[in-house]
Amino acid sequence: MKNPFHVMIVPTLGCPANCSYCWSSEEGSPVMSIETVKEIVEWLRDFKDEPVTFTFHGGEPLLAGPAFYREALPLLAEGLPHLTPDFALQTNLWRMTPEMAEVLAAYHVPIGSSIDGPKDLNDLQRGTGYFEKTMKGYETATEHGLEVRFICTFTSTSFERREEIVNFFMKNGFPLKLHPALPSLRSDEPEQWALPPEKYGDLLVYLLDKALVHLNDMEVMNINDLCRCVFTRHGSVCTFADCMGSTFAVGPDGGIYPCYRFVGMPEWVMGNVHDHPTMEDLAQSDAWKRMHAFKEFVDTACKDCRHITYCRGGCPYNAIVPTGGEVRAVDPHCVAYKRIFDEITDRMNKEMFASPPPGMGMGMPMGMGRGGRPGQPGPKTTPGVMSLIHRIVMR
Ligand code: SF4
Ligand code: SF4
Description:
With 395 residues, this protein is an alpha/beta fold. Helices cover 39% and strands 10% of the residues. It is globular, with a radius of gyration of 22 Å. It binds iron/sulfur cluster (2 copies). The site of one iron/sulfur cluster has 10 residues, from helix 12.
């Protein structure tokens, strides 16, 4: 199975917010010119013949302003019709104006934003005033028909308030997508906010249980992705796939990187869109070679792990950037991945061998136990992982 072709466009590394654990913004970063967008189109014309998704990322991509998107979106969509481009945008929504929303709505750009839970907790982690500004942008975006989903960054602090966070997302009808805070590469205390891998594992199992108990009232995107990985035995998100060669990012000056997380690190530049490099050209760069060394490392280091096919050692950024580019270990979140993949696999096997899952096979209705007399509901049971998987597959 091929991985989707993904190009992240980082129009600027600047950001008006000041989140405590952020590692991806730079003050005074330049903004990408429309000339560079035209060069992206030229670069991609013969680069790969596969459907592409462009994600605008940051820094804060809305700092580029509506005029940028008014030109960039048609250039990319109409300049590359053979790649049938799709779009997405990751933003804190502070600069979402009615004008911006109209430009994005014309291209049905789905929005990913960030909120870490209730206002006090969110602002503790992301700075005073963040919550209100993001929610105001959210209203503007949704009033214009844009679809918005939130990513919640869990830190060592917010982990302790996970129940409250889950309730906040459920109460507001937001699907929950989580991201573990990483050790900051730019702070004197890199571990201050980071979510330790063991706690990340606990959190994923906790969310799996929540997703099952609230099967009809809430969605945890990561749990869906993890279940899909185990069931199909294929990594369906970049963390659990070999992202090298199928994901690239373009920085404000046209520099090409392995993904948005590397943008602004000169040692990770693979080429520049102004030179229209081929895949073979990019393969000559040191950054490419380091990414592929990771892939080979995983083949050996994870060879005895039962999850290797759909885990692939996790995220190469997490694994090799903290060691200055040296491939010494897999993603430090391995502990968490193993824990949740084991949990899903074991539950799935148990349920499959024990009885047909609700809604599959014999078609037992959700929430009914086995053994009840015909016509009478059995004792209420929590749906199992196969109920969730069935739902994901049917979608
Ligand atoms: S380096 Fe990590 S975040 Fe970037 S595309 Fe690869 S898996 Fe995803
Ligand atoms: S769970 Fe850990 S050992 Fe297994 S494939 Fe993933 S990173 Fe490798």
